[in-house]
Amino acid sequence: MIQIHPAGRLKLAVLASGRGSNFDAIYTATQDGRLNADIKVLVSDKAESLALQKARQRKIPAYYLDPSAYSSRSAYETELVSLLRQHQVEVVALAGYMRLVGKVMLEEFRHCIVNIHPALLPAFPGLNAQRQALEYGVKFSGCTVHLVDEGMDTGPIIMQRVVPVYDYDDEDSLSTRILEQEHQVYWQSLQLMAEGKLYLDGRRVIVRT
Ligand code: GAR
Fold first, then answer.
1. Which residues of the chain have a pLDDT value below 50?
2. Is 62 helix (H, G, I), strand (E, B) or coil?
3. What is the Å distance from ligand 1's center to 67 Cα?
4. Residue 187: its pLDDT value, please?
5. Residue 140 CB: number of other CB atoms within 10 A?
6. 56: Cβ–Cβ under 8 A, 6 or more apart, which residues?
7. Is 169 in the pocket of ligand 1 (CB under 6 A)?
8. CA proximity to 25, closest of 100, 116, 147, 105
9. Is CB count within 10 Å lower at the N or C end of the chain?
10. pTM above 0.90, yes or no
């Protein structure tokens, strides 16, 4: 059994592609003391992402890294790793980051890349998870915080939250209900890491108190 992170303040990077509401939730938790972490840097693969603007307003170092400017995923990630290391990052939180993570990042931040996904994995991985859940007709969905591995949304699960799916739901209403839970469960998972309570046993994440 290996400890995922020793007890201590997390040196966090947030990677985001979009509006950044999970970034907001994590940031607020660091500001009011619920989450023992510093967000050292935010990186986005989208120049126009709201998350970038929010980071700049908060005086958090923020970078746009254009994937199309690199010849391969590895070349892109080599640059990303160098940027994260310049900012002393130890843990990477993907918050609506819509790219697969490759082996350069995985080798550098082994067991220290965390993602949030808007479904109860292993159901509905990939894009449009809420739409997939509605189309399938499940009665419950939710969100999952997990460690990132080489697969698409396949890594060891840290926490999940369940929400009901109602007959009148559309993608927006279900997404909103799930998002409320995302905003709680992400900082709580990261705080368990900061408290040194998370251990990996095979692909099971165990919380030791
Ligand atoms: C969130 O619902 C997150 O779970 C999802 O993107 C949204 C980002 O919202 N991530 C994925 O689907 C990853 N597969 P945000 O930018 O407001 O945090």
1. none
2. strand
3. 19
4. 98
5. 11
6. 62
7. no
8. 116
9. C
10. yes
Same domain, 74 and 131: no
At 75-113, the pLDDT tens digits run 999 999 999 999 999 999 999 999 999 999 999 999 999
Classify the phi-psi angles of 107: left when phi > 0, otherwise alpha if psi is within -120 to 50, otherwise beta: alpha
What does DSSP assign to residue 32? Answer: T
75 and 153 in a single domain? The answer is: no
Domain coverage including residue 46: 9-110
Tokens of 145: 């915080």
Looking from the CA of residue 182, the nearest atom of ligand 1 is 4
The whole-number pLDDT of residue 2 equals 96
Our answer on whether the CB atom of 96 is closer than 6 Å to any ligand 1 atom is yes
Kindly give the number of the ligand 1 atom that is closest to the alpha carbon of 97. 13
**Which residue has its alpha carbon closest to ligand 1 atom 8?**
96
Q: How far apart are CA 191 and CA 37, in angstroms?
A: 8
State the burial class of residue 180 (Cβ atoms within 10 Å of its Cβ: 0-12, 13-18, 19+): middle
Specify whether 43 is located in the same domain as 80.
yes
CA 153 to ligand 1: nearest atom: 14
Domain identity same for 127 and 102: no
Question: From the CB of 95, is ligand 1 less than 6 Å away?
Answer: yes
**Burial degree of 79 (CB within 10 A; 0-12, 13-18, 19+):** middle
pLDDT reported for residue 209 = 86
Q: What is the CA radius of gyration of the chain?
A: 16
